[in-house]
Structure formats: C-alpha cells, structure tokens
Fold this protein.
Amino acid sequence: MEYCFNLFNKLAADGTAMAVDKFLSEPSRSKKKESCKTDELPIVLCIGSDLAIGDSLGPIVGSMLKYKTQGLCSFLYGTLSAPVTAKEIKYMRTFLRETHRGRKIIAVDAAVGSEGDIGLIKVNDSPLYPGAGANKKLGSIGDISVMGIVAEKSVLNYGLLNTTRLNLVYSMAEIISDGLSSLLWELNGRSRRREIV
C-alpha cells in the first residue's frame, strides 16, 4: 500500500505521520522476520549524500530529526555530518539486523519519478531500494519507506544530481522530519502510558 502527499499540502506532515503509524501498527507480512518489538521506537535510517543537492534529502531529514527528537531515546542513522550513502547499505543492513534485532526500520531517501510526481512524498509499507533510480541493484532495506520525489527520471539521471532545487529538497525534508518527529514523540508517550498502567 502507498500513500502520497504533495509538498504544498498543509497536512502533508500529519499525513506522513499517520501513514507511517498505520504501517508500524500492522503485523509484518514477512514470515521470515521475527516478531517486531512494539514497545520500542522504530529505527530511522536516512539515506543519501550531501555531495549532490538531489540526493541530500535523507541526510537533511536526519539532521532535522536529530534536532527535533533531542531527549528522546531513539536511534537515527544518516545525517549531514555522518551520511549513510547507498553504497553502505549492505553493511548497514547487517549492522541493523545485529544491533537492533526485531525493531522496525523506517528508511528515508530521495527518489526520481515522472515530471508530475516531483514534490510528492510517498510512504510505502515495503522496503526501500536505494539507488534504484540510477539503475543500481543494491538490495532493499527497511520495513517502511518514505521517499521524496525530487527530480524527473532520465536516462543519465543528471537531473537528480545537478538541477534539483535546494528549496524543494529542504521543504520536503521539513515536512518529513515534522511528521516523523511528531510520530516518534507520540509513540514514546504511548509506551510510557503503557508502563504506568
């Protein structure tokens, strides 16, 4: 299932939070996966590089989330100061499986699409395939994917790297980080209420 929110929709951040929350509350569809721990916050993995504006959505979201979730006991990987690029996914997959066994992973990344899709934020209840827009086969990661369509898909994909406007990427990062931070705080509050009862 997929939910899409336009960059200019004032409720895009709330919609993103609600969609991710819905997917987190659903049981895992994969029989191979062990049951996910619902009492712990999900891991957030923001993928991308700060070397290209179009690919910087993930690290910008990560940096904004780091600030917005200060004081919250959550795990976040991929910021502007410590980016996680698509090349590192195979190592990150192993690290997350061994370090955070049984926890759901929300993967955030920039994506390319049709011209009419630029500015859409897509939330899926399926893994993310980093590098797929550049025809790279790097495997999947995460349980829930949040993608921001930042450029039109082209044969050479130069649009993603060179002609994407920073304002577009930054605005989408604000929406995604607002949605995810409000959700993480809400999940933290729910878990504390369960502890008290």
